[in-house]
Inverse folding.
């Protein structure tokens, strides 16, 4: 398969390395102003991996014209702007795969919705989601992930073409649920980091249990399948997000709680705003998201907010 990967960050470069490894012809695109791309052009390396000579490197976005499959791995809030850049090429009959997790602030749009809103109807859109860390994949540690799409033929072709010894792909059957679940797990990751920063890690069990129910309610309200919250794209990604030392969202939350500096805002920082917008629109209570929002955006004391969360009215274990 002739593939163009847009995004030269850790995930984009890992995807490039992986797809080249299993036999595809891959071109990696990065902006000429990107320090990461300049490093690849100079050394073919970043701080984690080295790209073989079989991978083509380019700073020309027009490379998408030659690709049958375009994989996008950038920050979710930049997707609309990227789609506008791509519009000048009038792309048709291509497959777009979104390997990113998030929701658009202001609209609450899922990423597949943003792509479809900007692409010719002849194109197909899929998502690549699920657990895993770049550091572990590159060391040969395997994991399972999900590919989902509204188009069954596209989904089947991608699963068959992308599966390898490092990644076992499952067929998704709920695009809404998998996208919402994947985005929301980053918010739960920040909450887990806040607990770590306050030395309250023993509460992660409650966080995982209640967080999953919270997300399941929202998925159901949006027309997705409630059980998707318990699949690989949400609950199945908790180990990598809630506990792992490689989890950017968890580390962000821990640093925030400790008052330590952090270099980049985590994806969940943006997602929690969009989650609350969706919760209000669809009348779904999201207490964990509300707590994270108060801490990140309203300067509420993390300890006080988490105590308020624990002091919510007494309920049976399986009540909403």
């Amino acid at each position: 398969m002739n593939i163009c990967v847009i995004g030269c960050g850790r995930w984009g470069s890992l995807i490039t390395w992986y797809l080249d490894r299993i036999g595809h012809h891959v071109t990696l695109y990065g902006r000429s102003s990107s320090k990461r791309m300049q490093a690849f052009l100079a050394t073919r390396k970043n701080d984690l991996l080295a790209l073989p000579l079989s991978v083509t490197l380019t700073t020309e976005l027009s490379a998408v014209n030659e690709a049958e499959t375009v994989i996008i791995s950038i920050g979710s809030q930049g997707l609309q702007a990227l789609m506008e850049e791509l519009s000048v090429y009038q792309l048709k009959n291509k497959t777009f795969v979104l390997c990113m997790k998030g929701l658009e602030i202001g609209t609450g749009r899922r990423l597949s919705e943003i792509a479809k809103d900007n692409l010719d109807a002849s194109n197909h859109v899929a998502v690549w989601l699920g657990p895993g860390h770049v550091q572990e994949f590159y060391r040969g540690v395997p994991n399972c992930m999900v590919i989902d799409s509204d188009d069954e033929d596209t989904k089947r072709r991608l699963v068959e073409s992308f599966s390898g010894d490092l990644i076992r792909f499952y067929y998704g059957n709920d695009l809404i649920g998998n996208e919402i679940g994947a985005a929301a797990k980053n918010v739960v990751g920040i909450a887990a980091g806040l607990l770590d920063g306050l030395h309250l890690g023993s509460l992660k069990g409650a966080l995982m249990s209640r967080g999953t129910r919270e997300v399941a309610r929202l998925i159901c309200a949006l027309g997705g399948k409630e059980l998707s919250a318990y699949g690989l794209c949400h609950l199945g990604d908790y180990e990598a997000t809630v506990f792992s030392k490689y989890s950017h969202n968890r580390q962000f939350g821990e640093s925030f709680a400790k008052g330590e500096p952090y270099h980049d805002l985590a994806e969940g920082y943006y997602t929690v705003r969009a989650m609350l917008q969706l919760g209000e629109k669809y009348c779904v209570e999201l207490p964990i998201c509300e707590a994270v929002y108060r801490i990140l955006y309203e300067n509420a004391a993390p300890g006080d907010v988490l105590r308020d969360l624990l002091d919510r009215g007494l309920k049976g274990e399986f009540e909403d």
The first strand starts at residue 2 and ends at 6. Residues 147 and 158 are 7 Å apart (CA to CA). The longest helix spans residues 175-197. The chain has a mean pLDDT of 95.
